[in-house]
Write a structure and sequence with these properties.
The protein is α/β, with parallel strands linked by helices. The chain has helices at about 85, 100-110, 135-155, 170-185, 215-225, 250-275, 280, 295-310, 320-330, 340-350, 380-395; strands at about 5, 15-25, 45-50, 50-55, 60-65, 80, 115-120, 160, 165, 190, 230, 290, 330-335, 355. It has one domain (about 5-20, about 100-395): Alpha-Beta Barrel (TIM Barrel). The radius of gyration is 20 Å and the shape is globular.
Length: about 400
């Protein structure tokens, strides 16, 4: 198995760092042990399915063939960097910090990470896997996930902050769950970026997120100061790990590399649609985060949206230019970008970028080395903002 052992060459950052995108490997019994008796056989669980261990929902559907742990970090701290080796990993192979809160805190302390924002795996980055089952089962799966994540946040001593999943197929239920999660202390929501590809609880097509249909949910988010997070691959239509971007002649790991890179740009589609929908004129206080998408594409896209609006849609007008909405309503997360990163972050907006690692996924920034040195000639005040201050403000995290 090809791996590379981490080598620490620097002291942890003196800045209180907030990692704005990490993932929690859901324990195999996470849903089963919390489910009421009538749901225990139907909630997500790991068992033999069609000849191999898999995550199964509703006792009949695989939502994770192979029951992969979605972690590339081995128990001894080495990181797997070969796709075929990564795909063979089991829960028993990977570092306990993938799913254990105490072990995660140790990793954070060693890296100088003060807090983490946490996203799911099994139900999809936007909870889209729930769309495969009936409405009642969807609801209980989301509620159990959010209950478990509130427990993670409490166990971490308010250092791990999972984002809540929503029952996005039912607006009233989504509002109730948002309010319930806010009452439990969760600091943001995570939602399917393309609900219009699905139907609501009554079997009617859902509107896209730019529709006034969603405004009551956005009003709750503004009132509760809950940012709306769009992780890459947060819908069935936006996720593509292996198939459509790379040419057929390329080996699988290279096709996967292209697909993974193109996922970053898919979030540009989400950002563009939000801006052009006009929803931010109705909801000016709403805050969005483009998660695990990088930041380098933002200046080009904003300039392009400004230009396109003038050249081919001058009969359409908004209260601001498209690029101005990004500055007032969006944040982008960066991690691997190093070439000219200081200039890039200033173009995006020092107040509009968050630092992330994507731990413990394959493309994660691990080991975490030379954090402040990676940021070029940013001033100390600018580094403080992009490494933690912006996230602290956005997610209401005490430093």
């Amino acid at each position: 198995m090809a791996t590379l052992a981490p080598e620490r060459t620097d002291a942890p950052s003196t800045i209180k760092v907030i990692d704005a995108d990490t993932h929690y490997t859901e324990p195999h019994d996470m849903w089963v042990k919390r489910a009421p008796a009538q749901w225990k056989d139907r909630v997500p669980q790991v068992r033999m399915f069609e000849g191999q261990m898999s995550w199964v929902i509703d006792d009949r559907l695989s939502i994770g063939t192979g029951a992969h742990p979605n972690s590339s970090i081995l128990k001894d701290g080495r990181k797997v960097r070969v796709l075929d080796d990564f795909l063979k990993l089991t829960f028993a192979d990977v570092h306990d910090a993938s799913s254990s809160v105490p072990e995660r805190l140790k990793i954070m302390d060693a890296a100088g990470i003060h807090a983490q924002i946490v996203y799911p795996n099994i139900l999809g980055f936007g909870g889209q896997a729930t769309g495969k089952v009936d409405v009642d089962l969807r609801q209980i799966c989301v509620e159990i996930y959010n209950d478990a994540m509130a427990e993670v946040q409490a166990e971490s001593g308010e250092r791990m902050f999972p984002m809540a999943l929503l029952p996005w197929w039912d607006l009233k239920a989504a509002i109730r769950e948002t309010e319930r999660c806010a009452a439990m202390g969760l600091r943001g929501i995570n939602i399917n970026s393309d609900p219009h590809e699905h139907k609501d609880a009554d079997g009617q097509p859902l509107p896209d997120l730019g529709s006034p249909h969603w405004d009551p949910l956005w009003e709750v988010c503004v009132d509760r100061r809950l940012p709306v997070n769009f992780h890459i691959g947060a819908s069935d239509t936006s996720i593509d790990w292996m198939g459509q971007q790379g040419w057929p002649s390329l080996p699988r790991e290279l096709r996967s590399g292209i697909s993974g890179a193109m996922l970053f740009f898919n979030n540009g589609k989400v950002v563009s649609n939000i801006i052009y929908s006009g929803m931010l004129d109705r909801n000016p206080g709403l805050q969005f985060v483009s998660v695990e998408s990088g930041a380098g594409w933002v200046p080009f896209l904003m300039e392009a949206l400004d230009y396109q609006l003038l050249e081919i849609a001058e009969n359409r007008s908004f209260q601001k230019r498209p690029s101005e909405y990004f500055r007032s309503n969006f944040h982008a997360c960066f991690w691997f970008e190093k070439d000219g990163v200081a200039d890039t972050l200033r173009k995006v907006g020092i107040d509009n970028v968050l630092f992330e690692t994507d731990f413990p996924h394959p493309t994660s920034l691990f080991p975490i080395e030379n954090l402040e040195a990676r940021l070029g000639d940013l001033t100390h005040a600018e580094k403080t903002k992009v490494l933690g201050g912006n996230a602290a403000r956005l997610y209401n995290i005490a430093l």
